[in-house]
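User: two proteins, same treatment. go.

Assistant:
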Amino acid sequence: MPDLQFQPDQRLWLLHTPSTSYAIRLDENDVVQHVHWGARLSPAQARELAERRPAAGSSFDDAGGVPELAAEGGTRFGPAGLQVRFADGSRGVEWRYAGHDTDQGHLRIHLHDRHYPLRVTLHYRVHQDSDVIERWTSVENRDDQLPITVSRCDSAAWTLPHRDGYRMSHLVGGWNSEFQLRRGEVPAAETVFTSRRGMTSHQANPWLALDDGTAGEDRGEVWSTALAWSGSWRITLHRDPVGRVGWTGGHGHEGLTWSLEPGETLETPVYAGLFTSGGFGAASRAWHAYVSGHVLAHPGELRPVLYNSWEATGFAVDEAGQTALAARAARLGVELFVVDDGWFGERVSDHAGLGDWTPNPARFPHGLRPLAAEVHRLGMLFGLWVEPEMVNPDSDLYRSHPDWVLHMPHRGRTQMRQQLVLNLARTDVAAWTHAWLDRLVEEHDIDFLKWDANRPFTEAGWPGNADPDRVWLEHTRAVYQIMDRLRADHPRLRIEACSGGGGRADLGILARTDQVWTSDNTDPVDRIGIQHGFSQLFPAQVMGAWVTDNPNVATGRRTPLRFRFHVAMAGALGIGGDLATWSEDELKDAAELIATYKRIRPAVQHGTAYRLAGDGTLSAVGYAHEDQFVVLAWCPSRPFGHEPAPLRLTALDPDAHYREQDTGTVHSGAVLRHAGLPLTLPRGDHASVLVHLTRIAAKG
C-alpha cells in the first residue's frame, strides 16, 4: 500500500514513494509549509527538517517558510498560486486548518478561510509502483448567496532544496518544429512558461525539469513536473536573490477570471512531480512507466502499424482511390488504414465543409461503409480523420448556427486556416458534437479516430454568459467528456490526439487517447530532435511516427528509405507516403522493414528506453524488454574518415552474453557496457542501423 504518515505532535505529513519522500507541515498560522522533496527520509529525519526555521531576513522580504500553495496576501510577494476576490472586494486568504483524511494513497488537507466561506483542499496522491506524486487543488464557495471571483487557482507549487547553479530544461518549438529541448540557467527572477492559445500548444509544453547544473543522462538529481491539462496553462518559475527556487502551475493564463457561484467547487487538473537521483534518463523512464501504469487506458496493447492517406491524396479523396491505396497498404503488412481530410461535405479544400460531417455523396456514393468493409476484408482496422472542434464559415453548420463559435460582441471573427472554433463549453454544441461522432463511429464501423484541432482560440467570448472566461476551462473539459463517452460506448475505439501535429500533447489528453501525432514534419533528420524532446516525458508507444515520400514535403530533403524507417521505428510506426508512386523495390523493402518492426515492436513499445549518445551527429535509442535489447542508431552526417566510435550500452547486464539476431555475432555484456557496440553504418550521410540483441547466457 502507498505510505502516508501523519505526526500530530509536529503537525507533519510524510509521504513515501518507492525511492523518494515528500514532507509538509502546518505552521503556527495553519499555513501548509513545504519541508522536503527528494531522497527517502525516516520519520525522525523528517521531524528534524520540520523543526528548522528559516533564517531571519530583511524586514522588506517575505517572512516564514515556503507555503505549499502560496495565496495572495500578507508578506508573500512572489508568484501566488491562489488569487481570489470576495464579494465585498477583499482579497487574499488567511488559513484555518480544518482536518485531513487519507484513502488508498490519497491525502486531502482541508483549509478554511478565517472569515470568508472559502474551503480549499490540497490533494496529494502516491502510488506504490511509481515515484511520481500527483497533486491538485479544489476550491469551494461555501456561501449560500454571494459568488467568489477566482483569478488564479494553480494545481500545485513545487519547492526545491538549496543547490548552486540550478538549471532548467523545457520544451519549445512551433508548427513542424515541436519538442525542441532547451537547457539553461535559472535566472534570479520569475520565468513564465505558458500557452494562451486554448491548446497545450506547439510553442511550449507544460513539462519542466530542474537540476543543479551538473546532471547528465545517467547521473544527477533531477526534479521534474508535468501538468495534465490540454487547454491554456501557465507555470511560473521563481528564483529569489538568495537562491530559493520553486515554481507554481496550473490551468488558465493571466487576465482570466472565473466566478465561483454559491455552493460551487472548482477542481484543478493534476500537476504531477517526480524526483530522481539517476539523471535525465532515469527521470524519463520513470515518467514513461507512470504514463503506462497510471495514465493510458490500454497500455498493454501494441499500437498497430498504420497507413494515412493525407500525403498521397490531399483533399482528392474518393472511394476508388482509397480502396486502391488500402490494397497496397495491406500488401506491406499495414494493420490500420486511416482516411484523412476530404471525405465529408463540400471539403475539396480547407476553405469549406468543415462541420458538415457526412460523407461526400459524389466521392462516396454509398457512404463509407463499403470502404470500411473492404479495409476490414483486407485484414486491417479502419480509421478516419475528424476535427470536431472547428468549423469553416463556408459550411451548412455555420450558416445554420453562427452563434455556436467563440466570438465577442462588436468584434470581428478572426479566421485562421479559414476556420473558427466551436464553443464546446455550450452544452448544446457539445451534445451535437458527441451525437454526430457517436453516429459516425457506429454507422461506419470505425476502429480509430484521428482527432485533430488545427487552430488556437481567438475572440474567446461567450455572449450572454455571466462568466464568459469559463469557456477557457469548459471547452477543454467538454473535449474530455466527449472522448470519455465515445470510448465508454465503443470499447474497441482507439483515438490519436492531433493538433496540427504536436500542439496537444500532455498527460490530460493521453488519459483519453492512445497515441499522439508528434509533428506534421516527417523529415527524419528533423524528427530525431523532435522525438528526443518528446521522449523526455512520453513513452515510445504513444509517439506516432511516419515514413513518407522523397523529397520530404516539409523540408525538401532526400533521405534513404531505410533511414526514414529506422527513425520512425522508434515510436508507433506509420506509413504516410503515396504508395502508388513507390517502385516495386521500395515496396519490397518497406514490407521487409515493417516485418522487422513487428519483430522488435514489443521492445520498442513496451520496453524500457535508454537515450544513447555517440560521436558527432550519431545518436541512438535502446529498448530493453525481457531478454531483448534493440538499438536504433542514426547518423545524419559525418566527415570522411570519421567513423563513430562503438556505442556504449550501459543498460546491459555485464554478466550476460548477447547475440545479434541478424548476424549471429555474440558479445559480452561487460564489453558492450564499457567498450561499446561496433556499428556497421552505410557510407555517406543519412546512415542508420538497427541491432537486435538477445540475451543468451550468463557467465559460468
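Protein 2:
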Amino acid sequence: MRPMLPALALALAALPFHAEAPTQAPAPAPAANGVKPTPPPPPADGEPKPYEKVITSEAKTQTGLFKVHQVKSKLYFEIPKDLLGKELLMVATATEVPVGADHVGKNVNEDVVRFLLKENKVYFQAVNHAFVSDPSRPIASAVEASQRDIVLLAFPVEALSKDGAPVIEVSKLFTSEVGDFTARQVVNATSMDPSRSFVDHAKTFAGSVRVDAVHTYSLAPHTIPGLPPMPGQPQPPARSGSVSVAYDIVRLPEKPMMARLMDDRIGYFGLSRVDFGSPEHESKRENIIARWRLEKKNPSAALSEPVKPIVWYIDKATPSQWVPYIKKGVEAWNVAFEAAGFKNAVQARPFPTKEEDPEFDPEDVRYSVIRWVPSPIANAYGPHLSDPRSGEILNADIVMYHNILQLQRDWYITQAGAVDPRAQKLPLPDDLMGDLVAYVVTHECGHSLGFRHNMKSSSLYPFEKLRDGKWLKEMGHVATLMDYSRFNYLVQPEDKIDPALLIPKIGPYDIFAVKWGYAPIPEAKTPEEEKATLNAWAKEQDAKPWLRFSTPKAELGDYGENTEAVGDADAVAATTLGTKNLQRIVKMLPKMAIQPGQDDHALEELYGASWGQWTRELGHVAAIVGGYDSQNKHGDQPGAVFTPATKAQQAKAVKFLSEQIFKTPTWMFETAVTERLSPMEPSVKLLNAQRYVLRALLDRARTTRLQTQEIAAGDKAYRVADLLADLRAGIYTEVLSGAKVDPLRRNLQRAYLAQLDERLNAGTGPALPAAFTGVTMPFGNPMDDTRATVRGELKALAALFSAKATAAADRTQKAHLEDLRDLALKAVDPKVAPNLPPAMSPFRSGFSEDNCWPDFTQQ
C-alpha cells in the first residue's frame, strides 16, 4: 500500500518528553551596600529579550538539529545560523484518530520549508519545486519568479543565543492550520479549534525534529448525503474529533542524489515537476522515481555490498513468533537487488541495545521501523519519505496491524484450503501463519522500496502453467509481489503441488523493476544520459509479457487489470477451477470451524469469506465484457495499445455467469453449514452476489465500451443488445419455457428489472472516465446511447410477462409475472419512473496505494 506523497513514522501513544538537565543562568550578585541592583530597562518593542528571560531555569532543553526548549506550555526552537535559509522537509502524519475516521498513519501534508531570518523576525516559508529549468537557459529567472516561496507564518525573535541563533516560540505552528498542514480531511471536519489543541511532546535528533500535537476539530453533523434536513426536526448536535499529528522536520541531504527519470512502463512511485527548459515546443512534465540511495563499496565489482544498506528495525512489541518471518519477508528482496549489483542490500534487525547504538530512537527518521500495532483493523501499509529534489527515500516505516492475521487466515482457507491440509483445521499452525506474515511484509517492503501496485501482472503468465509444479517453483503463479494476486486457488488436489508454492514470492517483474530502478549506469553523468539504457531495459517487456506493468488509463477496461485474481489471462477457466475448490472448502467448513464449547463465529466468518472469494472471482469474469487487453508502449514499439476482447470471449463470459451465479448455486446451501446460520442468511448472500454481478455487467462505463467496440467492429462486436439478450435467456429461463419459478429465482428476476430501471432512469453521471477526458461533464456521456436499447428491452420484457401471465395456471406464478410486468412498465413510464441518482460502479476505477489489504471477503 502506498501513497504518491509518502508518510513518516507512526507512533500510537504519546511518549514522555526527554530532556537534558536544564542550564540555569547564574543569579545576579547583590550590591556591596545591600541595595538591590536596578533591573535593566525592558527591551524596545520588537527587540529580542535577554536569553535567560526567555529560556528560563524551568526550560527543558534538548540538543539536535535545532535546540528545542519547552517552557511550561510553550515550545521554542533555537535555530542554528547555518540552518537559516536552508531547505528542510516537513511532514505531518496522523498517528492517532477517532473511531470511524481515516486510517492511522495517513500522510496529512508534506512540503519543503525554510526558516528565514530578517531583522527581528523569522519567516516560515513553503518552498516550491513544481517548476524547473536548466539554469543556463534565459527562461530560468522567469521560472523562479513564477513560483515565489509562500510565507506561512512569521515569528518574532524572542531572544538570541550567544552565537546569534534566533529563539522563536513555535507552538502556533503545531496547534493551528498552517498552509496545507491540516488534518481536517482525516475526520471530515468543518473547522479547527486551537483552544482545544496543544503540543503534546517534542524530540530533536541529529538530523530531524519531531513534534507531536493534538488537534481538535468541529465535525460535520451526521446527515444522509444528498438529503436536506427534515423540516421541523432539531439540528443534529455538534460533534468533535481529536487527531494526534506528528510533525517531522528533516534536514535534506547536503548533496542531492542524482535523480532517475520515470518511465510509466515500470511501476515506481515518483515526484512530478514541470520542466520549462526543455528543447521541446511545450512545457514538459518531468517525473522522477522514488528510490533509496545505494552506492557500491566497490564500484568496479559486478556484485558489491552497498556503502549504506537499507535497514528495517523490527519493533520490540512484535510477537516473538513472527520476528523470524518478518526478517525473512524483508530480506526476500535481496535476490532482486543482486540482479542490480548489490549484495545484502536489504536487512532487518531487532531494535539495537544502548551499547550497540546509543543514539537509536524509533522516532528518529534515520531509522526505518517495522511496527506491530495492536489494532482490530485488518491491514498493513508501507509509506515512505523522500527528498523532493531527487526522489531519494530517506525513511520508510512499515506498519502491521494485528488483525492482518485474521484476514490472511480467511483468505488462505478459502483459496488454498482444498489443497493444503494445514489449512483444514483451526487454528492454522504457526509455520503457515508465519509464511503468510512474511508475504505481507515482503509486499509492504516493496512499497517502501518505491514500488507501486502492478495489478496487470496476474494476467500475464500462460494460464496452463499455473498448475505446473516446475513453472511454479521457478516463476511462481504471479510475476510480482506487488499485484493483489493472493494464493493460487487454481491448483487442484490431483495436481499434488507443494503448498509452499501457493504463496506469492519475489518474481521476475520484481527482479526486472529493481534492476531498472537501482542498477548503476556509471557512464551516465546526468538523468538524461541514462534514458537510452533505461529504454533498452524497458523493451524487454516486448518479448517477456510478465515483465509488464499496468497500462496508464487501464481503468478504461483492461480485463486483466483485476485485484485478488490468479490466472485472469482466462478468467472463465480460472473461476471454473476456483469454484471447484470452493465447493470442496464449503463442505469442509463444519468439521473445521464447529468446535466443542465454542460458538459458531468462525463458521459464520469463513462462510462469508467463501461467498466473498467466489464473488470476486465472478467479478473477474464480468470484467471480460466490454474489456480490452492492453500493453503500455512508447514510440519505438509498434502495434495497438488496447485490443478488445472478442465477441466469442464476451459471450462465453456472460454464459458462464448465467450458469454459475444466476442459476442457483445449490452447493452454497450446504445443509451442515446453513443449519447453523440465520435462516435468511444464505439467500441474502446469494441475492447480494447476483446484484453485484448484474450491476457490474450493466455499469455505464461498460456499456459505453461495448458501444465503442461496436463502432470499431460492427456486427463482429459483442453489442449491448447481445448482452441484454443473453441476460434475458439466463435470468428468465423459466418464464420463456413456462416452467415454475422458485423463490430464489423470483428474487433474481425482480433484481434484474430493478437494475435495468436504475440503468435507464439513474442520473446520467460522468461523460467518460476521468482518465480519458480529464474532466467530468454533468450532462452525461454523449457516446452512450444505450438507454434506448435498455428501454426497448424493458418494453419487450413487459410484453413477454403479460403474455405469460395470461396463460399461467398457478396462482403464485401468475402473480409473479404480473408483478414483473408492472415493474417493467413503471420503469419506462416517465410519469412514474423516478430520476434516480447515478449508480455507483461496483468496481474501483483505480487502486488505492493506501490500503493494500482490503477485506472484500464478507458479502
